[in-house]
UniProtKB/TrEMBL annotation:
Organism: Marivirga aurantiaca
UniProt GO cellular component terms: membrane
Domain Peptidase M48, residue spans: 85-253
Biological process terms in GO annotation: proteolysis involved in protein catabolic process
Name assigned to this protein: M48 family metallopeptidase
A Pfam family assignment: Peptidase_M48
Region (Disordered): 258-300
């Protein structure tokens, strides 16, 4: 781990700029992609080795199933927008950690972790898709790398990076971890900004819809999450600050997401019910059938 960060110092000689998909915003990118991936992958392995992985095969399978569908959607979305290079170094992985914490994150390079404590808030497969889409969107929009770049300037601004990293390798490592997973307590690193949250919401909504999940599940999930904010807010809310603006924005983007959802529903052979265009008199008045989703069996 230390070696990675020493290498980081010597390769961090230039400032580059990336463009965020969908919003097309320019972002600061101080950490070279290869180094970002290397440190992310080793951080991820470290987290897994220190965690108890769930042995509930049904729940693990559901996380992987949703993850793979979102992955396919991301690949399609980026290919359609000529941005496939963003994920060329990704090594997707989806794991479920057995811990009663309301949290989930995706490190750079598609390394996803869900904690079993978030499953009751997700409720079902669509709820998982909301969180999966959102977290994967943070990685696709390279928010971790951007936060790491910002944190390096903020924390080590006045000091030569090589000196600071040599003298504070552990803090720097913690800083990377916090930047990737949205940790808010280490070294004063801020939670994901409202801008990052907003970008991840809109991209995430697109990804879940393209993967064939009803995007209407997103505002519902965030309402449930917000209801838990009284008392001691869950980890997920402290790193993903939320408010009424989020729900309002999600609903604002819903028509855009619904177009992707309708298209995915048409292309898919899976039993996603659609309004039957053949039955001319009933389709207008009957309420839209709700897609049958697999309910989670939560046992602690
Ligand atoms: Zn977020």
């Amino acid at each position: 781990m230390k070696k990675i960060f020493y290498t980081l110092v010597f390769t961090m000689m230039f400032v580059a700029c990336n463009k965020v998909p969908l919003s097309n915003r320019s972002q600061l990118s101080l950490v070279p992609k290869s180094q970002l991936m290397a440190s992310s992958f080793s951080s991820y392995d470290q987290v897994l080795s220190e965690s108890k992985l769930s042995n509930n095969t049904q729940q693990v399978q559901m996380i992987r199933n949703v993850g793979n569908k979102i992955k396919v959607a991301v690949e399609k979305y980026l290919a359609d927008n000529n941005k496939s290079d963003i994920i060329e170094d990704f090594e997707w992985e989806f794991n479920l950690i057995q811990e009663d914490v309301v949290n989930a994150w995706c490190m750079p390079g598609g390394k996803v972790a869900f904690y079993t404590g978030i499953l009751p808030v997700c409720q079902d497969e669509e709820g998982i898709a909301v969180v999966m889409g959102h977290e994967v969107a943070h990685a696709v929009a390279r928010h971790g790398g951007e936060r790491m770049s910002q944190a390096l300037i903020q924390q080590l601004g006045g000091v030569a990076l090589s000196v600071a990293l040599r003298e504070q390798p552990e803090q720097t490592q913690a800083l990377a971890m916090a930047a990737y997973t949205g940790g808010s307590t280490v070294l004063g690193v801020l939670p994901f900004s409202r801008l990052h949250e907003s970008e991840a919401d809109r991209l995430g909504l697109t990804f879940m819809a393209m993967a064939g999940y009803n995007p209407e599940a997103a505002p519902e999930f965030w309402k449930r999450m917000q209801a838990k904010s009284a008392g001691s807010p869950p980890e997920f809310l402290s790193t993903h600050p939320s408010g009424d603006t989020r729900i309002k924005d999600l609903n604002k983007w819903m028509p855009e997401a619904n177009k992707y959802y309708q298209k995915a529903s048409k292309e898919s052979n899976s039993p996603i019910p659609q309004v039957d265009s053949q039955s001319d008199n009933s389709s207008q008045t009957e309420p839209k059938k709700k897609k049958k989703v697999i309910q989670l069996k939560i046992d602690n």
